[in-house]
Structure formats: structure tokens, C-alpha cells
User: Fold Glycogen synthase from Aquibium carbonis.
Amino acid sequence: MNILAVASEIYPIVKTGGLADVTGALPGALAAHGMAVRTLVPGYRPVMAALEGKPTVVRSWPEFYGGPASILSAAAAGLDLFVLDAPHLFDRPGAPYGDGGDFPDNWRRFAALGKAGAELAEHGGGGFLPDLVHAHDWQAAMTVAYMRYANERSVPTVMTVHNLAFQGQFPSSIFPELGLPDAAMSVDGVEYYGGIGFLKAGLQGASAITTVSPTYAQEICTPQFGMGLDGLINARVGDLHGIVNGIDTAVWDPQTDAHLPAVFGTRTLAKRQRNKAAVEKRFGLDADAAPILTVISRLTWQKGMDLLADVLDRIVAEGAKLAILGSGDHALEGALLAGAARHRGRVGVVIGYNEPLSHLMQAGCDAILVPSRFEPCGLTQLYGLRYGCVPVVARTGGLADTIVDANEAALSAGVATGFQFAPLTADAFLQAIRRVMRCHREPSVWATIQRQGMKADVSWDRSAARYAQLYDTLASDV
Assistant:
């Protein structure tokens, strides 16, 4: 089968979060199931710079959402791509969605991406005619709407929600510029509470909806996690599938990782000490036997970073050290930096994101804290499993699906891979930290948890098989 994926970012070319990791790794995993994937991405500056050889122009327009544009067929970083080359929309400095805030024309930029996806679904390009279209998150969701209202060719669609909190909501005044028929401005089209909802349109029209863990699929059917879309999702619950994300186990492999001072495996855990020493040096932490708890995250309310700031002093009082890497809410950045200033040698903070440093932290720290209020899947806990950095997670979404809590029964059976806690309160969080500290004081128990986590299958193998099965089912129904 030929699969057209549509996404706003893809690793290793352009990345702001886990979406890119998924869209970058899934094509390779699907190849083993006979699926040929080409991904349509915007022609941001890093994307255009990464293209190999001379791209083939498969479609062009003198006027396309405000300027000339074309779709290129090209390869980059081992990926087969279609690229929407529209300089007036994507040739900009800074982050993909805005530099210090959202670009005001994001509705136009990602409507254009959706229209380009629909054109490829209808006509193909470069000898590639899709059998199915897979759209990722709100930035790609209008692909489904344009296919639904404009295309004559019947092609099944999959809409994947990576985080329902980001929906692409815009005022109704943009509707005339979307180029959709009047019938689309309705409750079963793109209309959403009097405005336009890009993700809502994708959820409404897709042949199937997937999200990135089974528990999150259940959660988004409730008002608490449904973000105003739970009614629509419940109406389509028969088409909803929760498929947990995997990670690229070639990129994240502690036995071959070039970012590490010392590579290691389940039988050579002692080598992690060299990585721990490197973390201590990078973050200005005391070189002692105390465990290092790490955070590698966006510093936001959703990620529970306000809770971390609230309990930081008490975590240090328990005897742990903290190494924190991330950026986000300026008040939270300030609170964590203030904590580091209060506890020199015990807390270190680096504001920003650094991919090599994140590998080192997973390989040298003892446990990774993920106190998210909601977490569709989460990838940092999967990296932690792979690297023997024991996850400590809130019991929600994909965190609940991927971590086996170190309760007495799991410890006795030797199957524990981390620590879960609920509810999301300071007391519950600290109780989990105390459990971590108790287990860490028993080296054989701790090593068993590490090794069990490192043996967990966090690859794309099983999840890719589920996507392939879903694709086959949808294609057979056409």
C-alpha cells in the first residue's frame, strides 16, 4: 500500500516535540509491513536545506493561499518526502509555528498544507498515488476536510490526535478564504462553536481516528480530558483506536549512542557511572552517591511543572539531586532557576532544549520525573526505560499504559519498571519520590527495576503492525 502522511514536523529535520519523533520513525517501521510511506511537510527553511539532490516538481500554482507554491518530491535524512514549497508561508526564521508566539496566519499556512495533501490524495505525484491518507494533529487535519468536500477519488483517511489540547481554533471570518463550499460551514463540517475548528474538521470527516495510547483514547471520551470535543469523539467511538507510540530504537540505543561518554547494556549498568559524572559536571551537582532525578520536558502546567516547583525543596530534603532541562512558561522557568540558586550543588537547571544533552541525562540520571496532568502517550518515559533511567509518572494516559508500578506484588515478581502515582498532588508525588529513594538504597532491587525496563519492548514493531492492520481494513472497505 501507498500511504500519504501529512505532518507539520518530522525528525530529524524539524522538531518541536514528540510529534516529529513519531512521524520520523513510523515510515520505517511500516515498511516491514509492506507499506510505502511518503510524508508531506511544509517547506520550512530547515526542510528546504535538508533536501537531497534536485527535487522533482509534481504540482505548482501561481497563486496558492497568497503566493506562488509548488509540491516537490524529494528525499532527506532517509525519508521519502513531499514538500510544500511556499516561501510566503514557510520561509521564515524561528520555530515552525511562531517565534515567541503563534504566527497570526497559521490558519492560512496549515490550510494550505491540508489543501496540498488533498491534491496529492486526488492526483498523486512523482509516480506515487496514495491508497490511504494519514493526517497528524490539527496542522494536517484540513487535509481530511478538503478531501471530503473537493475530491472525487475515494481514499480512506486516518486522523491521529497526538494532543487534544491543541486544536487549531480560528474565527469564522477566515471561512471565505478556505475555499470550501458553503455546506462545510456546518456542525458536521468545519464549524466549531461559531468558529472554525481544524482538528474538529479532521475528527468529523476521517474514516478512522487514532490516538497515541489506549488509556488516552478512553480519557478523551470524558469531559475532563475531552477538551470540548468529547461529544464528537463519543459519537465516533466505534472508529476510535488507541495505539501506543514507540520510539526509534536505533536512535535511542544505550549500547551504541554516540552522545554518551560510556555506552552500556543490561549487563554493564556500572558503566552508567561515567555518564552520571558527566551529568553532575554539566549541571554543577555535587559528586556523591545521592540519586539524580531528572526532568526533560516542556515547562508547562500540562506537564505538572508547577507541582515540581512547589515540591522542589522537599525533594532535595529527601536526599535527591535534580537535573532539569526544558523551556516554556517564564514563571515556571524562574521558579525552577530560583530553586537551583537556593540549592547549589543539589539542583541544576538548563533552560532550552538540547538533543545530545537529553541522551546524556537519560543515560546518567537515576530516575526521570513525569508528573503530567494529562499525557496522551509520552516519549521521555520510554527513553528512560531504554536507558535504565527509572520513570516516575502520574497515572494518566500513555504513562499508565507503559510503566509497571513498583508495588509489592510487581517487585516480588520482578516485573516492575517504574513508579506510578495518583492523584496529582504534592503528597502523592512525594510519596512516589520516597518509594524511589527506598528502592534506590537497595542496589539489587534498583538494578532489577532498571533491567526490566531496559528489556521492555518500546520499539514501533507492535504499534506499526496495528497501524498496518487498520490501514488494510480501511482500504478493503473502500
Q: What stands out?
A: The chain is about 40% helix and 20% strand. The chain has a mean pLDDT of 97. The two ends are 14 Å apart (CA to CA). The longest helix spans residues 106-123.
